[in-house]
Amino acid sequence: MLHVHNLTISARTRHGLRPLVKDVSFSLEANQCLGILGESGSGKSLTCKAVMGLLGEEFDVQGEVLFQGQNLLTLPEHKRRKLRGKEICMVIQNAMTAFNPLFSLKNQLLETLRTHLDEPDPVLLKRILEAFEKMNLYEGETLLLKYPHQLSGGMLQRVMIALCIALNPVMIIADEPTTAIDVVNQVEIIQELQKVRDLFHTTMIFISHDLGVLCQLCDTLMVMHEGQKVEQGSVQEVIFAPKAPQTQMLIQTRLELLRAFHACTEVAPCS
Ligand SMILES: Nc1ncnc2c1ncn2[C@@H]1O[C@H](COP(=O)(O)OP(=O)(O)O)[C@@H](O)[C@H]1O
Ligand SMILES: [Mg+2]
Q1: Superfamily grouping for domain 2-266
Q2: Fewest 10 Å CB contacts: which of 40, 192, 193, 195?
Q3: Confidence of residue 260 (pLDDT cuts 50, 70, 90)
Q4: CA of 204 to the centre of ligand 2 (A)
């Protein structure tokens, strides 16, 4: 489904190119979920944006991104725009920034579907309402009349996932979709994404620093550090037998936090 070869992304600066992602290669089979793990600034988002073709002129992108056999890096922008949304959808960290505050959800969701699907508005609306139902978003008709600021971060995130479902893409890239929302909503979003996988067998790239979430959703994991891939393997291999020191560090830190949490709850039980 997706083969990334020697992806190198550099920022164009006054002093020349500054490499940010270096020589990253990975593959993703259809119906699989690849988790990308790594500390903040390690190049996870840039890698995914390059796959989506969302990086502007200020970046130099080298290498190959083969999606269903087509190199996305050399595809003309109008063709890439067609792929984006219809074939590959992205769910971003802060849903609020994905929506325009001036327009109702109905307006924006319809507009997006119109760009990708050649169907009359009533059919598109039906698609949206069905997707809402699948994402447990009730009273869809009323919800559609709302403006982004009238919804919580968690709700907006679900609307964004519902929009993805309505577009029925072959691949979804979720870039830390649970980072900006509270824990209760995080659990629900993960369950919803799991449901998307189960129902539609969508291929997925899932970025998170939450090991628990990655274990639950992903088949394979790739670990990034300072713009490079340092490890890749099955979830079992990476989490339970990490080879790279950077992965060992990430897991160790997480375990220490958990231990501290358990120590606290032993001293002062919650109930
Ligand atoms: N627009 C940009 N201009 C210059 N540097 C950037 C830009 N976006 C990201 N970077 C840098 O690229 C590196 C990787 O960023 P990013 O992919 O966003 O990290 P991650 O998603 O893993 O937290 C970071 O050092 C970041 O500062
Ligand atoms: Mg990021």
Answers
A1: P-loop containing nucleotide triphosphate hydrolases (3.40.50.300)
A2: 40
A3: confident
A4: 16
